[in-house]
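WARN retry 2 of 3 for item q-0093 after timeout on previous attempt; input resubmitted unchanged.
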Amino acid sequence: MTKDLISAFLICISLFALEANAQIDQSGFISIDCGIPRGSNYTDVATGLQYVSDSAFVDTGSNATISSEFHSDDLEQQLYTLTSFPEGKRNCYTIKVAEGKGKKYLIRASFLYGNYDGKSQLLINFDLHLGVDFWTTIQIVNASVPLYGEIIHILSSDFVQVCIVNNDRGTPFISALELRLLNSTIYKTTSGSLQTFVRLDLGSTATQIVRYQDDLYDRLWWPYNNVANTISLSTTSTIDNANSYLPPTKVLSTAIAADNDTDGISLWWEPANSTDEYYIYLHFAEIEANHVNRQFNIYVDGELYRGSFAPDYMSVTTIFSISALKPKDRHQISLNKTGNSIRHPTINAIELYKVVKQIINPQTNDLDVEAIMNVKSTYEVKKNWQGDPCGPVADIWKGVTCNFNGDLPTIISLDLSSSELQGAISPYILSLTKLETLNMSNNQLMGEVPPNLSQLAFLQELDLSNNLLTGKVPANFAQLPFLKKLYLKGNSFSGKIPEELLEKSRNGSLDLSYDEFSPPPPPKDEFSPPPPTKDEFSPPKDGNKLSAGALAGIIASVVVFGILALLLLLWFIIRRMKNKKGKITETETTVQSPKIALELKNRQFTYSQVLHMTNNFQRVLGKGGFGTVYLGYVDNRDVAVKMLSPSSVQGFKEFQAEASLLMSIHHKNLISIVGYCVEGNHIGIIYEYMANRSLDMQLSDRNPNALTWEERLHIALDAAQGLEYLHHGCQPSIIHRDIKSSNILLDDKFQAKLADFGLSRTLPTGEGSHVTTIIAGSPGYLDPDYYRTNKLTEKSDVYSFGVVLLEIITGRHLLGKHDKIYVI
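OK item q-0093 returned
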């Protein structure tokens, strides 16, 4: 039996597969050298091909050069550099191919490790994806041997996306990416695409591969002259290669023939998977001058494939399979001399391709891909925006929602809130014609709102709040037939809200949020509420008298309000008197005046200003036992405004403690105070706004997988650093006393910050220090020792933090909605 041709070849050159997009002349070639400087290009000396930098096709990765010890005169120029991807799970090249959809392409990726990182790594392993589909796994086992991946594929889109996916087995990289257009009549299949298995220049004794310009399709032909029981043939004469496959004349000028000891040639291979299917392409040309009476039969897997075949003199004949070979553990091609033949069989070249059937997932609609790529480029969006926006399912772009019900996925929702966007609203968004939801809130967008946003006919929700937008609100928004929500507050619009939008808001068909563009001048003495809208109470039109019921309700409300205010004032006076008479037995961090007058004087807001910043307390962020938290807007940024309930005496005590504490400490993992309001019984604290609310909400039972493990780890670390600062970075140390998931807030980047310091206490200095105090905290988080002894120590916070860690790990709330007990 002859040596296994294919296995030997694989050992020698380690050929792998990927996909392509090229043209038959160089003007149609796309040749990308990965790792050369941004914007640079060059002409390859050996091939004359024009190569460009990969910087225009990928926005991640690091440039590198192989070690000098791997340089050689025979090495292709594009293999000297590479782009590595040490960060990110999935990094993708996106290449637009003009009118590429429906055409047949060869896509080739090249890899040479060359110890570029000085780590002498072997067994590097990473995956390649073509568009939304897994393609193949690349395994680096030799630093000096280039690997090539090829696939012949009919494009389903004008965009080719090649993704390098990290398997946590070494840093992925790529050296070159090449796309070549093929004749649509060649390499036909009944289904699937063709992954290159081997492409051999038989009988060649050269040391270099044959490619462009010898091969007009720029296929790579590997010299191979190691078939047992054969001899090599060659010619310097010109060979006619004019068939649709156009095998290079340089390849056809060499061949192998059976030697005198045998009557045939046998080539065989064993697939890695017995279910794999293959297509074969055999190229023949008679190159011996004395060629009379050469005939042979061609057998494939024991079945006659072509009988009494005689190659044409100095002219190519390509014999190929119409359908894929049936799966087998072993395939064999035999060329056997017929009884009437004098000369032995010969063959010049062979190509074998494996059928790839998994390329079936549709790519996103081309118009949507082009639009979203332009949006990405305009705003330099990072996130996980790599590859196809809508696939694979596990890698759908963050902030993008897709509809998969049609022939091709389409983008129906785009959330770019809190993404640090700057500049104008991108006109490319208009090309996302199926958008139902668009959220661009909490950025720094400037300029006017494009009136042609109304072209998004399916739009249901539009949120442009909290930006720097100016000009007038387009009246034609009212013409959007499905618009249900329109949020415009926190901008610098001029003029008035169009009456058409106000009418929709009044009749309940539109949820409209906006600022008063021309607010009345501020009152001299006290705040006067704005006039009532049609939906609010207004006096009856037929007279100036109120009904008896309405009048009684108003009087009762005033009386109750007055009593509460008097009680609060009385409590405060009594408390001050007690503080003067006796020594305070527990160490507290409190303020000495309801005005919080010292350090916070420059941060004091009037109640009128609070009403303005919250748009009359329009949007509630949350409610607690001592009051309500509202969304506000101050100095071009969102804030959270916590207003104390007038009836909450305990809440006022905690308000004092929290305001004083936050005034004196500063840390990246502690919530920061913007200001406060103390005006009559209107008491509130203004904090920085945390866009992603609390950890408790992120760990909702309805969405246990909302946070990735990486995000959970960072949140836990942030919270721990904040707690460590309170315990060891402050003098004296501070005990939070109410560590729980709802008091860990998350900003737009999921950075965690400790909040709600109303129960906090400072700790006396000295070893073994503690504070003896009444029990306070939240069920399930209380330290058992603290509960038993009333002695508060730093370990009390640590215990509570351990409970939070358990919540982070499990993704579950500590207590269910109906739980009344907990286990310590």
